[in-house]
Amino acid sequence: MGISSFSGWEVVIGLEVHAQLATKAKIFSGASTAYGAEPNTQACLVDLGYPGVLPVLNEEVVRMATLFGLAVNATVARRSVFARKNYFYPDLPKGYQISQYELPIVEHGELFITDGDGNERRIGITRAHLEEDAGKSIHEGLGASSGIDLNRAGTPLLEIVSEPDLRSAKEAVAYLRKIHTIVRYLGISDGNMQEGSFRCDANVSVRRLGQKELGTRAELKNLNSFRFIEKAINFEIERQIELIKDGGEVVQETRLYDSDKDETRSMRSKEEANDYRYFPDPDLLPVEISEEYIEAIRVTLPELPDAKQQRFVNDYDLKSDAAAILTTSRALADYFEAVVGATDARAQVAANWVLGELSGALNRENKGIGDSRIAATDLAGLVNRIHDHTISGKIAKQVFEAMWEGEGTADEVIEAKGLEQITDSSAIETIVDRVIAANPGPVEEYKAGKDKLMGFFVGQVMKETQGQANPEQVNQILKAKLND
Amino acid sequence: MTELHSQTLTELAIGLESGDFTSVELTQALLDRVAEHNDKLNAFVTITADEALATAAHADAARETGSGGVLNGLPIIHKDIFCTRGIRTTCGSKMLENFVSPYDATVVEKLSAAGAVVLGKSNMDEFAMGSSTETSYFGPVRNPWNLDCTPGGSSGGSSAAVAARIAPAATGTDTGGSIRQPASLTGTVGIKPTYGRVSRYGMIAFASSLDQAGVITRSAEDAARLLGVMAGFDARDSTSIDQPVPDYTLSIGDSIKGLRVGIVREHFDAGLDQQTGARVKEAIAVLESLGATTVEVSLPNLDLSVPTYYVVAPAECSSNLSRFDGVRFGHRAEDPEDLLDLYCRSRGEGFGDEVKRRIMTGTYVLSAGYYDAYYLKAQQVRRLIADDFKKAFANVDVIAGPTTPSPAFKLGDKVDDPITMYLNDIYTIGANLAGLPAMSVPCGLVDDLPVGLHLVGAHFTEEILLRCAHQYQQQTDFHTACPEAFK
Description:
The structure holds two protein chains of two kinds.
Chain A: E1 9-20, H1 60-71, E2 75-76, E3 79-80, E4 82-86, E5 96-100, E6 106-114, E7 120-132, E8 136-138, E9 147-149, E10 156-162, H2 169-185, E11 198-208, E12 218-223, H3 226-245, E13 253-258, E14 263-269, E15 279-280, E16 287-288, H4 291-298, H5 305-316, H6 320-326, H7 330-341, H8 347-364, H9 376-387, H10 393-404, H11 410-417, H12 425-438, H13 440-447, H14 453-464, H15 471-482
Parallel strand pairs in A: 12-13
Antiparallel strand pairs in A: 1-10, 1-11, 2-6, 3-16, 4-5, 4-15, 6-7, 7-10, 8-9, 11-12, 13-14
Chain B: H1 9-17, H2 23-41, E1 44-47, H3 49-65, E2 75-79, H4 106-113, E3 117-122, H5 156-163, E4 169-174, H6 180-186, E5 189-192, E6 212-217, H7 220-230, H8 248-251, E7 260-264, H9 274-289, E8 293-297, H10 305-320, H11 339-350, H12 353-366, H13 372-392, E9 398-402, H14 418-423, H15 429-434, E10 438-446, E11 449-457, H16 462-475
Parallel strand pairs in B: 2-3, 7-8, 7-9
Antiparallel strand pairs in B: 1-3, 4-6, 5-6, 5-10, 9-11, 10-11
Helix pairs in contact in B: 2-3, 5-6, 7-16, 10-12, 10-13
């Protein structure tokens, strides 16, 4: 579906991201947050909502939320309050979720994305608040009954709410990727979408261009990959426009995205919505933090993706898009910088290797940079051998593959396979002479002005040397001899 | 030797220490009292005879080796709101009729660690919601002074058992007066410490911002002894306060000369039974005779405390009791048709009328559109009430007055009239709203029924209250009076 089909309409999107915070223990209990354990083995009495138990705040989540607030240039509240959101559901053991309502820990943040025209756009972050996750209902394999797994109950979440500043599904994804990158940079969330540690709901509405008031919005749930988010939003935009065009009205409701059918469908309307009866949780004191606390955390802020990208452009003379890709994760950026630091070659060459061969090899095996079989210093060793002309770029790819297969460092592979470049001029001259002698026809043609044949001669020499002759020297010597 | 059951906790501690009797002998004697009298009183929900005797034997052995705690071998009763590992904890409700807690409340843990022997779990108003024990699923408790009367509530099983000399002491909880009112109506001593002084961990929540554990005993000295063990910071309760716990027994012997006693004029208006008022005034005169001076103080927002309480407490309870949904523990409806049916019937069958009334009230005051008018307004008034007390305590050390408007009323008298029942807590609720320590001390009889003197202190002045009460008890013998049938 092209953007043109929305012409005459303005799309308004706001996103709510739930990022699971990467703490070892839960937000209000000492139980582990590790993923994938047997059902209900990581739920203690507090998580189970037993009579008489009380929540105790894991202070690590305050640090993480503060870090996030500082990273998005937000106000970190000196005083925030946990409230109870009351509703009944079997996977909600206490009958209420502890969340933050009137006084969240983070407010008035912002980040910048690049829109479809390459312009920078500011997207407001209304708030980010701390809350506990619910458990999971299990419906498969239990006959008429349902099961409940409370391992996830009490897992800390940071809910990040954007302003309705996004104007297309693409912008929504760009914003989301930015948040995803930031939380991982900060080390406050693993961002794993498959495991549900990074989830997103989208509020989508449309209005005719020029219309002042916002259209009625629908809330899309169950968006668990960047691809689905884009598809779901686009489906929803088209659905709403078609609906209005046909004289209908969008109703405020929650809609579920079905990735199999690529459609959204109504889950519950506003009338069926709960009255959550929020009130401050009397079991928890307000979270009060000092200016000194905030400043102490500010000092620990890592370099953020935007700043890092800019630095890569400035310091390493990289192209903006290469810098952008290299900074999508801190691990990748660190790897790149480790390669640069260990080589005399230009940073662009290192970037080419990291984004080219290395990324290709990792993608092939569906691995992340952390799982690279070649250490950064070893990749730098390979780049150095190109830089000092020990091997050509072409041979280097062969060396890389050998290194990937664990055959040793670049030097070991070059040595073992005898791949060192031939740089001895007399040796190259001998071969050049042989090639010239063996190809009188092409020599005639070349001398008659068919310059293109130079490539042919180079190829012949390289073939004779199994690619190991220094290409520049081959060029020079060939030219000298043929132009004699 | 005085019969064991007639002795106070302090006297029993001395007797055990000097080897006059063993904890097993003492425990058995009291279990015999339970067997003899509980049918009349219905003070217990659960009697833990075997466990008690085993603990007592253990305490005796510990005493031999000199390793016992400060309460070693002393029998007590726990209000059935405190979770006790392996022993059912019902909270006076059908909902938890068969609930066995997998853990001990901090209060239980601390008292057990000090060597206390638990005779059983005392009866109470359902989820501590009531002032007469008539809301208990296990039937009402009867007042040892007059079996037709209530022993007060919600800690009525505890107050009745202590008054009837079945146990020297019992734990209780106080959300709006649930320790002090029953103490007043049974001629026992009841103290509710400062909010945050005793951990709420393991105490089944009614209204979290008001609930506080305390004790019912026969003397202020006994209360001091027990409170010192129960009090203290608990990392498992975020609202517990990290402040050192004084040895309350050390200072109770000190004089109260110069103590400034505040008298609130509004306490003695038309709502107070005249004879009860007379007993309280006589008690204040005793304090004056001990060198205390009286100062008139004003609590202008006092009349708002009951309506404020009946917004805040139900609001919190409506949320606190949501966990009783039939899914993980507690009563579960049979053969539910679907989830909604499971919820509706489990809760409908499991909760009694008063609990339902408060859940509905609480749900209402928190609802969208009503929150500001009720809950928020109540919180504002609560602050005003706390400020009133703060101002008053700038000039006085304690505030003295009646604990209840009248002596014990007949069972059945107020059960159909919740508003009149709620007014029974008119003098006690303020201390909960402001988080202040308060206690009730027996100060005489009205028509053969006991009434209590109510003492309220500033935050963390339990020491002053206990000293004041102890000094008063050195001059009077109301606390030693025993109902005839239980001598």
